[in-house]
Amino acid sequence: MASIADTRFFSERNIRRARLGSGLVLFTFVALHLSNHALGLVSIDAADDGRRLFLAIWRNPLGTLIFYGAIFVHIALVLRSLYMRRSLVMPVGEMAQIVLGLAIPLLLIDHVVGTRIVHELYRYIDNYETIVRLLWITSFGTGIRQAVTLVVVWAHGCIGLRFWLRYRAWYAGFAPLLLAFAILLPVLALLGFIEMGRTIAEPDYEGLVDTGRYQENLNSRYQTDPEALQQIALIRAGLYGGFSLALLSVVAARARRKWKERTDQIAVHFPGGEIIKVPRGFTVLEASRLGGLPHYSACGGKGQCSTCRVQILGNYQRLPPPGELEQRTLRRINAAPDVRLACQLRPDHDVTVAPLLIPATETALPANAQETSPGREREIAVLFCDIRNFTTLTETRLPFDIVFLLNRYFAVAGKAVEQAGGRIDKFIGDGAMALFGINTSPENACRQALSAAATISSEIEKLGAEFAEELTIPLQIAIGIHFGPAVVGTMGYGRVRNLTAVGDTVNVASRLEGAAKEFGAAIVISEPVAELSGADMSGIESREISVRGRALPLKVYVIGKEKAGEPLEGKA
Question: Does residue 382 share a domain with residue 277?
């Protein structure tokens, strides 16, 4: 009989979606709340005007259901996640998010009771004037606590949002703006709170406002009736106790499971001779972490990448079969039958595994190395360009002259690529590789690559004319452009790490640059580039060439020197 977790509705994927969705609702609430606080920099009345709009969204029946439903779902799924983790050994970022998240209910319960709950029960007016007066004058210590809570809540939300977005293709371009927003909003909210507090604390303030509008609060049952005060105290104790009991239940359940698992352990063997004994049900990745062995896991152990994959050394057929999520990832990389994801594989007997990606210790990596880009498959246009007969050109020239010529050529190529919207990947000898489409559509990527190629050809012709008297043969360029899927990610070692691409598309583009030399042409582009760019290829020679590693020939267009510097007009 399948467990609940295996059913379609309660699948791990849907549970993650529910946790993400509830988190986004809460993040939206917090962002709007802090924006409301920031209006205090204008005036208390401005903050209260913003509060009316804020309450219109969240204090209607639907908004209340969505908000408090999100709170319940998010806390429940976080506690479930905490229980499901077999090991609490994890990266610092994940640990910070969990610790901050567990602190939030304990920090916020008093605030929720003192605003929404007393408002609903006793019609207490919880406007900015009342609450800021309480936090700034009546109970300044509570005000400091709420300021700390604001920072904790916002930091927890931003960490979670970054974990969700960090590998999106567009994230790198928007990261500076998102960072500025993440810093400015809580700062403005705190400054708004401080400004409102200072205004209310002014001796002249009482004479400028109608104190009757908050006198009603002073005479409410919440302030005067002992039974009301006792009821609120019980609610507060119930909320603290309920959350604490839920957290302690998770801790107790983990302790009970650990006690039972001590008598039911398996051994995970690694190629270096390490043997790590873990309770049955642990994943191989958790075993690696528990044993202190470095093990790549770019997605954080969620089965959404293959960087943690291992080869099973032995009878892999005896292991539990991969679930739907693991199967999808393994199919995507065309994994062999004996390859599994370490974060998803939970061996039920002793097993020997070999990580397929060579791990490195955290201290051996530069700062933020794991946070750049672990590699994602994207469809991009790749451009290779190279100076033809470069060895002949430079064999009689001084080394400094060669460097000067290369730097002029690299400046031409780099400027042309950047102006077109691409990215210079690397310079190799007298060649250059550029990427297009990392943050744009396939059609635009191909048009950008063609535009860059035309500019490079035109500028190289001018550069050749400038050096004509010094060169033994004319300066000519060969360019190859291809479009297709490639793995784009941060690669390298130590400080020599940069965003690059690997895969068949890169190899084909390099082959087309070589074909341009063979054909005596300036530019050779593949058929996908021509079709996606919408270029008019009438009058352009086409050929079919064989590319090593491809079963079928590839149709290409060969552009001669006379047309290389001219932009290809789009189809009518």
Answer: no
Instruction: Examine the domain organization and report whether 120 and 152 are in the same domain.
Output: yes
Question: What is the full per-residue pLDDT of the chain (572 aa) written as tens digits?
Answer: 333 334 456 677 788 889 899 999 999 999 999 999 999 999 999 999 999 999 999 999 999 999 999 999 999 998 998 888 867 777 787 788 888 989 999 999 999 998 888 888 887 888 888 889 889 988 899 999 999 999 999 999 999 898 888 767 678 788 899 999 999 999 999 999 999 999 988 877 765 555 555 555 555 556 667 888 888 889 999 999 999 999 999 999 988 887 876 777 889 998 888 899 888 888 999 888 888 888 877 676 777 777 788 999 988 888 999 888 888 888 877 888 899 999 999 998 999 998 887 654 434 444 333 444 556 778 899 999 998 887 776 666 666 667 778 888 899 999 999 999 999 988 888 889 999 998 888 999 999 999 999 999 999 988 888 877 777 778 889 999 999 988 887 777 666 777 888 888 999 999 999 999 988 899 999 999 999 998 888 888 899 888 776 667 889 999 988 888 777 655 43
- Give the 3-state secondary structure of 263-274: CCEEEEECCCCC
Structure tokens at 179: 């960072």
Indicate whether 15 and 38 sit together in one domain.
yes
The closest of 299, 452, 323, 228 to 6, measured between CA atoms, is 323
CATH code: domain of residue 283: 3.10.20.30
Residue that is last in its domain, among 338, 362, 386? 362
Q: Is residue 570 part of a domain?
A: no
- Same domain for 133 and 218: yes
CATH code, 521: 3.30.70.1230
Q: Which residues contact 35 (CB under 8 A, 6 or more apart)?
A: 50, 185, 189
Residue 367 lies in a domain: no
- Same structural domain, 42 and 149: yes
In this structure, the dihedral spanned by the alpha carbons of residues 461, 462, 463 and 465, taken in order and rounded to 10 degrees, is: 90
Helix (H, G, I), strand (E, B) or coil at 556: strand
CA 25, distance to chain mean position in Å, is 19
Domain finish residue from 362, 391, 421: 362
Asked if the structure places residue 218 within a domain, the reply is yes
Q: How many domains does the chain have?
A: 3
Six-digit token string for 64: 């209340």
Report yes or no on whether pTM surpasses 0.70.
Answer: no
Amino acid at site 153: V
First vs last C-alpha separation in the chain: 61
Parent domain of 280? 265-362
Sign of CA dihedral 37, 38, 41, 46: negative
